[in-house]
Structure formats: structure tokens, C-alpha cells
Write a structure and sequence with these properties.
The chain is mainly β. The protein has one helix and five strands.
């Protein structure tokens, strides 16, 4: 089953995240099938960039978002 989740990138103590599409059982740091956006919690305000069309496509194809 495919899942949409966060994958951590960035330096130590300065995490940034990618919103990725992966198989549910895979390690979050393994290669993603597709990168769907980014999230940076260290900017003021926090920056979120999403590819909304691709996210809605994958959700319609049965992908499940993680908690």
C-alpha cells in the first residue's frame, strides 16, 4: 500500500522535511517514488509547499496519508 508521509532532510538540529509517496513498509529514508512537497518548520511562519494536483491524484488512486 502506498502512503504519503514526511521524510527528514537537512542538517543536525535543523530538520527540513519532504512530503513523499512511498510503500508503507519501507524505511522513511529510502528513495521515494515521488516527492510531493516540502515543509520547513524553521522559517517564520513555517513554509509548506505542496503539489496539490499530484496529492489529490495519489489519494484518488488509494494512497493513505500517515498520521
Amino acid at each position: 500500500m502506498l502512503t504519503i508521509r514526511l521524510s527528514r532532510t537537512g542538517k543536525r538540529h535543523k530538520p527540513q522535511y519532504r512530503i513523499v509517496l512511498q510503500e508503507k513498509g519501507r524505511d522513511p529514508w529510502s528513495p521515494a517514488q515521488e516527492i510531493l512537497g516540502t515543509y520547513n518548520p524553521h522559517t517564520s511562519p513555517s513554509t509548506i509547499k505542496l503539489e496539490e494536483e499530484r496529492i489529490t491524484y495519489w489519494l484518488s488512486m488509494g494512497a493513505q496519508p500517515s498520521n
